[in-house]
Amino acid sequence: MTKLRVALLSGGISSERDVSIKSGNQVYEALDKAKYDVTRYDPATDLGKLVAEASGVDVAFIVLHGPYGEDGTVQGLLDLLHIPYQGSGVLGSALAMDKWTSKRLYREAGLPVPPFQVLTLGEAFDTETLAKMPGYPLVVKPRSGGSSIGTSIVESPRQLPQALDLAFDHGPHVIMEAYLEGIEITGGVLGNDNCQLLPVVEIIPESSYTFFDYEAKYQEGATREICPARISKNLSDGAQSYAAKAHRALCCRGYSRTDMIIHDEMIYVLETNTIPGMTPVSLFPLAARAAGISFSQLLDRLIELAFEDRDRDVRQREIS
Ligand SMILES: Nc1ncnc2c1ncn2[C@@H]1O[C@H](COP(=O)(O)OP(=O)(O)O)[C@@H](O)[C@H]1O
Ligand SMILES: [Mg+2]
């Protein structure tokens, strides 16, 4: 059997570079070397090399998080090079990276989101008045980004300016939304059109963390992840169905993981990740394992789905 030539992309230039490298190492280890010939590329330095070697690549596996990796830019480059890749294309990646646009699409799909306001750098705004709509405590987060970078929980007006400065460091739009106390969960889906719904994961950061911040996410032992989540069947079915609806609403492909909060027995959607973490403590591989899918099998399936989508694109082009 000839081996598939895989370009594994990790590293990059976003603030999630370190996480991406960790995930990339894990994916490199787990890719079945009997099936795949793997070459690693770090977009921070190797984009020219990837373009030059494109004709020798059968499929790319993108393990990049945040801007310039998870946001459609790298996906666009790979499309131009006719290299199929796992997960969402340009559209789904860009939509999911943008938390403001995502919220509008969630609402259109009937998915509840926490009350929120968007602030734009350079526009005059009266934060005190705006903060009244979501009300305190509130969450301040950048419009685009991930891993809780630039995100703060604000308890009182006194803490607001610092939280806004931090979030504006990551871009010209900031989301201020109601802080919903409750059970934090995440729902993974696997597939292009008819998705497999993975068991819901419950996320419990150690009591020293006020929320699921960067350290709680990546420090081993800082967070307990329980899969399946200890919630009623009703809520668990609801969360799975929301994850599938979010996947469709944001035009995601291959896989995605939607973060949600259960507050007063209601599920609210926070955001969708199109390239979920793949580190040893990551949530998507955990949910897959709970569904009987090993990490290596998950990677095989994602590559299969990449080809399925590519074949469909080729057929569509031939028909039109
Ligand atoms: N409205 C909210 N209510 C309560 N906690 C929130 C809210 N929004 C975000 N958080 C907390 O912040 C974390 C990161 O927010 P999220 O919207 O998932 O962005 P990202 O993971 O892309 O940084 C969540 O996992 C959760 O712990
Ligand atoms: Mg999140």
Describe the structure.
This protein has 320 residues and is of the alpha+beta class. It folds into 3 domains: 4-86, Rossmann fold; 95-112 and 181-295, ATP-grasp fold, B domain (D-amino Acid Aminotransferase, Chain A, domain 1); 116-178, ATP-grasp fold, A domain (Dna Ligase, domain 1). Helix content is 37%, strand content 23%. The chain contains 11 helices and 13 strands. Strands 8, 9, 10, 11, 12 and 13 form a 6-stranded antiparallel β-sheet that branches. The mean pLDDT is 93. The protein binds adenosine-5'-diphosphate and magnesium ion (MG). Magnesium ion is lined by residues 259, 271.
Largest sheet: 6 strands, antiparallel
Summing up helix and strand content along with how strands pair, one would put the structural category as: alpha+beta
Low-confidence stretches: none
Estimated helix fraction: 25-40%
Number of helices: 11
Record field, number of beta strands: 13
* Multimerization state: single chain
Please write the CATH class name of the largest domain. Alpha Beta
Highlighted features:
320 residues, alpha+beta, Rossmann fold, D-amino Acid Aminotransferase, Chain A, domain 1, Dna Ligase, domain 1, 3 domains, 6-stranded antiparallel beta sheet, 4-stranded antiparallel beta sheet, 11 helices, 13 strands, binds adenosine-5'-diphosphate, binds magnesium ion
Question: What's this model, at a glance?
Answer:
Helix content is 37%, strand content 23%. It has 320 residues and is α+β, with helices and mostly antiparallel strands.
